Amino acid sequence: MESDANVLSRRGETVTLGGEHVGDVHRHSAFSTWDDADHLPDGVDPATQVHVSGEPVPVHRDDLDDLARAEGEALVSLGGAVDHACLERLTAQVAAEPVAPGRLAEWLVEATVTVNDAAAPTCTVNAYLDTELRRYAGVTTQNGLSRRWLVDAGWCEADVQLMSRRQRPCHVVVADEHLAGLRGYLQVSMTSLDFGREEFLSASAVFGYSPRLGLHPGALRIARVEI
Question: Residues 47-56: pLDDT tens digits?
Fold first, then answer.
């Protein structure tokens, strides 16, 4: 059943989330950019619609702290699933280049310069980076702020957005923000999976994603990194 509530009150139910909880998914997704829309737009091409689910998270319902933990972990996992779905759509259209871990920092600088030259002057360049690759990437903190990173390519740079996909192989996407970014509403639900003595929470989302690869031809590079 569906409820207007945003907390699962009993086993086996599904609720539609909104507000802060949807914002959590946006914050945990590298590709997603917050949008003010409060519903999926009418007349969306079904080919652009994506349905994803995060990993089920075990929960002890009698422990309110554990319930809050499980809800948070389910939303983090969903953010990773959103990024994985976006990445799959990109790699279906642009071939990934195999890059050794030891060469990743050099590749990132080269890709940032290439994408910056191909993009419009007002566009930001983003580097979508699997979290596991950060130690190979040679990225620096942005203006001294913690948890904000950039690729310094000298006269240009790329903002680093970390993906929590937990998938192999790892990937990096360097792209014009308008080309690869997910800009639109996320319809997010939380489901209780009842297995008798055990219960799991699973978050899912429906959204539209259509990478605009024709906007600035050449303004996207993808690396596949085996670690």
Answer: 568 899 999 9
Rounded Cα–Cα distance for residues 112 and 172 (Å): 11
pLDDT > 70 in the chain, percent: 86
pLDDT at residue 7, rounded to an integer: 60
Q: Phi-psi region for residue 138, left (φ > 0), alpha (ψ -120 to 50) or beta?
A: left
Q: Which tokens in the block code for residue 167?
A: 């998938």
Q: Using one digit for the tens of pLDDT, what is the confidence trace for 118-136?
A: 887 777 899 999 999 999 9
- Number of Cβ within a 10 Å radius of residue 190: 23
- pTM here is 0.87
Query: What per-residue confidence (pLDDT) applies to 131?
Result: 92
Closest to 82 in 3D by CA, of 206, 190, 167, 222: 206
Tell me the helices (H) and strands (E) count for the chain, helix number first. Answer: 5, 14
Residue with tokens 């055990």: 198
Distances (CA, A) of 115 to 32, 112, 150: 20, 5, 15
Helix locations, the chain, DSSP H:
20-28, 64-91, 104-118, 134-137, 177-180
Has residue 219 got a pLDDT over 80? yes
CA gap 112, 156 in Å, rounded: 8
| Residue 209 to residues 12, 46, 104, 143, Cα–Cα distance (Å) | 30, 10, 27, 31
Report d(CA 204, CA 149) in Å as an integer.
Answer: 28
Rounded Cα gap, residues 140 and 150, in angstroms? 6
